[in-house]
Amino acid sequence: MYYLNQPVRTQKVVFIPKGSINQIITQLYKRNYNVSKLDSILLRLIGSPQSGWIEMGSTYSVRGDFLYKLTTAKAALQNVTLIPGETTYIFLDQLAKKLKLDRDELKKEYSLATTQKEGALVPNTYKMPFGITEKELIRILLYNSKKQMKELSVKLFGTYNEKRWFHFVAIASVIQKESANIKEMPLVSSVIYNRIKKGMKLQMDGTLNYGKYSHIRITPKRIREDNSIYNTYKNRGIPKIPVCNVSFEAIKAAVFPAKTDYLYFMKSKSGGHDFSRNYSTHLRNIRHVTKRNRF
Predict the structure, then answer these.
(1) Whole-angstrom distance, CA of residue 71 vs CA of residue 51
(2) What pLDDT score does 120 carry?
(3) Based on C-alpha coordinates, what's the Rg of the chain?
(4) What is the DSSP letter of 237?
(5) How many CA atoms lie within 13 Å of 257's alpha carbon, on the beta-carbon side?
(6) Which long-range CB contacts under 8 A does 66-74 form with residues at least 24 apart?
(7) Contact 195, 263 (CB under 8 A)
(8) pLDDT tens digit string along 93-147?
(9) Distance between CA atoms of 286 and 263, rounded to whole angstroms?
(10) Secondary structure (3-state) at 256
């Protein structure tokens, strides 16, 4: 009884991994929870721990309540979705609003957890509990994202090299911003590589939809005044830092561009893009769209 009334301090929500009772207690111990082998024995008498997020209610429990909650409680989960092409700046805004977290604290924890300013998160729908801390949320998102990235990298290259991987993420981020759909991603990729090969500037509006400008329409004034590394009208090549978080389809397109001689593309009336190799054809496509929009 004395042992069961000892205090246990936790987060308001605790993640319980899948596994045996001994494995669960070991994992909790590694995460600095005050548990021991005796708790494994007691849990066998109380019941089997549930896997997933557990709602503790507070950061303080007596051991008996803590063990009981491991077998009975469940946390309320909220879906948070990172859309391909979205920037981390905007995603942190969304996380703060949906999970009622401190936006500045999320930014701080993200900066502490990774050296990648952008592109470190894999677009997906994640189930997160109310009550999770900013630090734990960022840790989980980055851990799951890196795991998925490593798995794809091994499939594509046979290994994972972070510098090489994020080189392709940077290319993929431009493809993601510029493509109207997945089907034309390899074509957009080919334009990027072809223009770089010829020493041409990319001159792509999508690269200016970085950070807080993710959904801001690009104007001639913005192109003239933006002096960031993302302005491909002023700077040559791919921005060193990805523009956004990218889908795996965009990464595959960056690694395996289509074989074309296209140098230009223009949004068509169908919502996709018309691709061309000659500037004269590109101008004709522009005039066609401009003329159509007048009526």
Answers:
(1) 9
(2) 98
(3) 25
(4) S
(5) 20
(6) 66/8, 66/10, 67/4, 67/39, 67/42, 67/43, 70/14, 70/16, 70/24, 70/43, 71/43, 71/46, 71/47, 72/47, 74/50
(7) yes
(8) 999 999 999 999 999 999 999 999 999 999 999 999 988 999 999 999 999 999 9
(9) 14
(10) coil
Provide the 10 A C-beta neighbour count for residue 275. 22
Site of tokens 């080919």: 190
Per-residue tokens: 100 = 């009622």
- What are residue 138's phi and psi, to 5 degrees? -65, -40
Tokens of 232: 């491909």
| Confidence at 225, pLDDT banded by 50, 70, 90 | very high
CA 26, distance to chain mean position in Å, is 30
Calculate the alpha carbon distances from 85 to 128, 168, 174, 286 in Å: 21, 15, 9, 25
For residues 201-222, average pLDDT: 97
As a whole number of angstroms, the distance between CA 22 and CA 10 comes to: 19
Three-state secondary structure call for residue 266: strand
Cβ atoms of 77 and 131 closer than 8 Å: no
Instruction: From 192, 195, 91, 191, select the one nearest 141 (Cα to Cα).
Output: 91
DSSP string, 162-175: HHHHHHHHHHHHHH
Closest to 67 measured CA to CA, from 130, 6, 19, 17: 6
Q: How far apart are CA 217 and CA 73, in angstroms?
A: 47
Cβ neighbours for 248, distance < 8 A, ≥ 6 positions apart: 122, 148, 152
pTM of this structure: 0.84
